[in-house]
Structures are given as C-alpha cells and as structure tokens.
C-alpha cells in the first residue's frame, strides 16, 4: 500500500485508506471457502464506497451480488453497475415509496419480516403490475453456536418467529403480487471460530429443509446468512475457513439433494469479512491533556468519523499503530475525538508514549462500518477523506459532502 504518512501529508486527516487488492483477496478467499454453486451477497451497509461496490462485482472469476436496505444503497449499487436482478432488498421498515422505486428500477427479490411486510410488498407489486419474489426471513428459536454474536432467538423486529411459520403457511402463499421464493436467515454475526460457523450453517440448513416441508413450498432460493468473522479496529487477520466448503456441501447434499443444480439456489452474505481488512483510518493528535489522573489524547477523528454503528461501543477497544516518535509503552490514555460530548471516545486505556500534537496514528482493519456508520453530520464537521488505492497506485480521493435541499414555494 502507498505509505500512510505520505497520504496523510497529501490529503490530510482524518482520512480512510481502502486497498482494492485487499478487497479482491477477501472476496476470492471467501468464494474459495464456499462450494462453487453458492452465491454471495455483499452487504452494502458495510461500506458503500463506489470503488468497493464495483470491485465486488468485477475483477474475479466469481463476483458478488448486492444486499441493500434503502434507496440510497439502491442508487449506489446501480451506479456501480449492478442490475436489479442481482439485488436483494432487505430491512424491517420498507416504505411504499422505496418499494415502488426499487421495483421500478428492476429489483424483484425482497426479504420480508412479517405478514404485514409481505402484504406491503405485494400491494406495491400489484399496483405496478409485477410479481415480487419474497424470501421469508426466519428468526429461529434456537441456534447451534453459543459463543458468537447471536442475531436470532429473541423478540425482534427482524424476521418471522420460526415456530409460527407452519400456522401461517396458507396465508403467506396467497398474498397477491408475491411468490414465496425462499427463506432468508441471519442467525449470527462474527462467528468465534470455524467450528461455530459450520455448526450454525448446519443448523440453518436443517431448519430450512424442515420449513420447506411444513410450508409446502419448493423454495427457489435459500439465503443462509453470514457470520464470517473479521477483526474490526484491532490487530489481526481474517480467518481462513479450510473446512467450511466440504461441510456445507455435505449438509446441503443431505437436506437439499437438488441444490447443485439450482433447486434451490443457495446463497450466503457478508459485509465486514469482505472489507474490514482493506481499510486503515489515519488520524492526527490535536491535543494531550491530563485530568485528575487520566490522560486524554484528543484526535481529529471521533465517533463522527468512526462511529462503529452509531457509537454503540462496538469499536472499543481499538488498536492504534503509532508512527515515527510515538511508541506504545507509555502511560495508558483515553483516545478522545473532537466532538462536544463525553461519549466521543475511540478507545480507553490505550498505551502511548509521549504523544504530541501533530503525531499520526492509524487504526487497522477499519474498512467496514466507517463514515456511513458514524455520526457524520454531528456538529457539521467535514467528513473524512476516503482514499482508494490498489497496491501502490492511487485510484481516487473523495469526500462525502453535507448538503441541504430546499423545496421553495410550498406551504408547510
């Protein structure tokens, strides 16, 4: 990668550096870990940068489809070259307006979270004279991985409670404007290890097979979800899944004998695994102060720059890599951002020796859930620069701009 010190000097801080070679490597390694017949949806929410979206769709023997949850993401993936038929539209709050726009722009596959959501999709499709392929998102009552971040098994706005689905079968099959095309699962995030990931996929496949029998529908698509792990804002490497490919194939052979011929088509989805290690956050020290026995290193990057899903604590603790004179064997310090809120902390008790204003720090594995998952508009501070490289070659430099659009001449 082009030297971070040089990039920081040229384009300032805070800024992100994304390496497309790392994106391509993650994409190709994930496909290598899956059977050839399995499709992958890239979760655009992880990083919707145009260059990254284009890289997901091009440049390899196998490329990703797109999973989106808004018309903003729809616009981004279409601009990156995706066709409507390559897109899965998800989310619990799909409005009539966004459904109509998505359908008008060619999207035909939607994940639905409840009977009301299914009817909503169907009503919009009927008005447009089309039929929408709907995947029933399933909130399983049980799971196999006990040590990962569970996404199901509790009350949630996401998905049908799995135990209720058999009793809803007749109602769901008869919703005008829709076809029950399959199932959508997302039972866990960031699996602790490969054994946990495999166990969860096996459980999901068995559940999908049982639901197909109980609902009396021959599914055309089964999205098994994700759970692929990657370090986030800390040191580390993406895991290599050496046993997943054969384990998935064996389980699918048992429960869906026609899957190799596309009956049903099998998909997985991933966000952070595909982009986390492609990104580095560059930030500079603005000030250093001591307060009642605690040292604060104030940076020009805060939760407006690297909010970790709106500052919900997901990025603590971060790792920093000091440059030049800054070491990591000194007094532990809180890493504070520039915002007027005590919640603007990127790390607590991070050891740094002799930090001084102007010093450059970097946060590794920061390619996912960066600017667009942060409090970007708070205080109106400029968005960070986003620098895209391919190895040592500079591809682009851009910055999200904050604008306000007025509608003149209309009564409030």
Question: Would you kindly provide a brief summary of this structure?
Answer:
The chain is α/β, with parallel strands linked by helices.
Compile the SSE list and pairings.
Elements: H1 4-11, E1 15-19, H2 20-32, E2 39-43, H3 50-57, E3 65-68, H4 71-79, E4 87-89, H5 96-104, E5 109-112, H6 115-128, E6 132-139, E7 149-150, E8 160-161, H7 165-173, E9 178-185, E10 188-189, H8 194-215, E11 221-223, H9 244-255, E12 265-270, H10 272-275, E13 279-291, E14 294-299, H11 308-311, E15 321-322, E16 327-336, E17 345-353, E18 360-363, E19 385-390, E20 393-399
Parallel strand pairs: 1-19, 2-3, 2-12, 3-4, 4-5, 5-6, 6-8, 6-9, 9-11, 11-12, 14-16
Antiparallel strand pairs: 1-13, 7-10, 13-14, 13-18, 15-18, 16-17, 19-20
What's the overall geometry? globular
How many helical stretches? Answer: 11
Oligomer class: single chain
Q: Decide which structural class fits the backbone.
A: alpha/beta
Regions with pLDDT < 50 over 5+ consecutive residues?
Answer: 143-150, 309-315
Percent of residues in beta strands: 25-35%
- Number-wise, the strands total 20
Share in helix: 25-40%
Radius of gyration: 23 Å
Give a quick account of the main beta sheet: strands, pairing sense, barrel closure.
9 strands, mixed
Q: Ends: how far apart?
A: 52 Å
Question: Taking all residues together, what is the mean pLDDT?
Answer: 90
């Amino acid at each position: 990668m082009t030297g971070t010190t040089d990039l920081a000097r040229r384009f300032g801080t805070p800024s992100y550096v994304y390496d497309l070679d790392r994106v391509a490597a993650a994409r190709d390694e994930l496909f290598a870990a899956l059977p050839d017949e399995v499709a992958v949806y890239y979760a655009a929410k992880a990083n919707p940068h145009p260059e990254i979206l284009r890289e997901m769709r091009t440049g390899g023997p196998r490329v990703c489809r797109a999973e989106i949850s808004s018309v903003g993401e729809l616009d981004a993936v279409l601009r990156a070259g995706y066709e409507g038929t390559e897109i899965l539209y998800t989310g619990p709050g799909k409005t009539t307006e966004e459904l109509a726009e998505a359908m008008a722009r060619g999207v035909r596959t939607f994940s639905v979270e409840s009977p009301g959501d299914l009817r909503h999709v169907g009503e919009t499709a009927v008005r447009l004279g089309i039929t929408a392929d709907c995947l029933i998102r399933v909130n399983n009552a049980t799971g196999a991985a006990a040590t990962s971040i569970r996404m199901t098994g509790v009350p949630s706005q996401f998905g049908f409670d799995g135990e209720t689905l058999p009793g809803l079968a007749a109602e769901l099959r008869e919703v005008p404007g829709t076809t029950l095309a399959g199932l959508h699962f997302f039972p866990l995030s960031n699996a602790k290890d490969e054994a946990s990931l495999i166990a969860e996929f096996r459980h999901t496949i068995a559940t999908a097979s049982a639901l197909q029998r109980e609902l009396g529908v021959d599914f055309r698509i089964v999205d098994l979800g994700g759970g692929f792990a990657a370090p986030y804002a800390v040191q580390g490497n993406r895991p290599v899944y050496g046993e997943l490919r054969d384990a998935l194939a064996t389980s699918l052979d048992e429960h869906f004998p026609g899957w190799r011929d596309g009956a049903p088509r099998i998909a997985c989805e991933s966000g952070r695994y595909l982009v986390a290690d492609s990104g580095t956050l560059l930030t500079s020290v603005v000030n250093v102060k001591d307060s009642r026995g605690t040292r604060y290193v104030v940076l020009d990057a805060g939760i407006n720059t690297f909010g970790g899903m709106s500052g919900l604590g997901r990025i603590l603790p971060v790792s920093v890599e000091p440059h030049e004179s800054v070491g990591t064997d000194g007094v532990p310090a809180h890493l504070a951002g520039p915002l007027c809120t005590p919640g603007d902390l990127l790390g607590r008790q991070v050891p740094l020796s002799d930090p001084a204003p102007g010093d450059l720090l970097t946060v590794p594995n920061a390619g996912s859930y960066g600017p667009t998952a942060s409090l970007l508009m708070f205080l109106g501070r400029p968005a960070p620069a986003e620098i895209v490289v391919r190895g040592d070659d500079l591809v682009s430099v851009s910055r999200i701009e904050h604008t306000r659009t007025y509608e003149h001449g209309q009564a409030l």
